[in-house]
Amino acid sequence: MVVLLQRWLREALRSATVRSVVLTASLFLIVSISLYPGLRSIGVLLHAVFTGSYVPGYHSVLLVNFPNEQAARDIGRSVMERRLAASVNILPRTFTMYYWKGEIQDASEILMLVKTKTSRIQDVVDYVRSIHPYANPEALSFPVGDGSQDYMKWMDDAVPDD
To answer: Do 131 and 92 form a contact (C-beta atoms < 8 A)?
Structure first.
């Protein structure tokens, strides 16, 4: 039985029709897998346009620590002037513990929250890193899952797409 099945399979694969069907199906599968992320994004955006719903992850909040309030204010204002963010919040002193060069360090820092479009996060991070007083500044972003539709619209208007 196994011998007959193997023989049938060899003969079938030799057939030009079967080979062309297998090739076409393989190409379709490869193209579909390659285009899936882009097609899914377009589908989600179209759904949001037609239903008025929010697209999760379209906006993000970036956390950045600073050694003092003046550095946070200066960099925050500079980020805003470059229209990289819709809003910046500078929070009062926080107590921070972290490893640096193999040892636990204690510090008092200022935390800045940067609210912007997810597509602009890397621009903000690159800019902040270029002028930040720390050698390795904290820059962690978190996508916004949901929120006030009016606020999200305001953020869209405040931050250009680039």
So the answer is: no
Q: Report the predicted TM-score, pTM, of the whole model to 2 decimal places.
A: 0.68
CB 54 within 8 A of CB 147: yes
Q: In DSSP terms, which residues pair with 94 in a beta bridge?
A: 109
Provide φ and ψ at 130, rounded to 5°: -70, -25
HEC assignment per residue over 74-106: HHHHHHHHCCCCCEEEEEEEEEEEEEECCEEEE
pLDDT tens profile 87-123 = 999 998 899 998 989 999 999 999 999 999 999 999 9
Tokens, residue 115: 């609210």
DSSP alpha helices (H): ranges in 15-59? 16-51
CA distance 94 to 51: 41
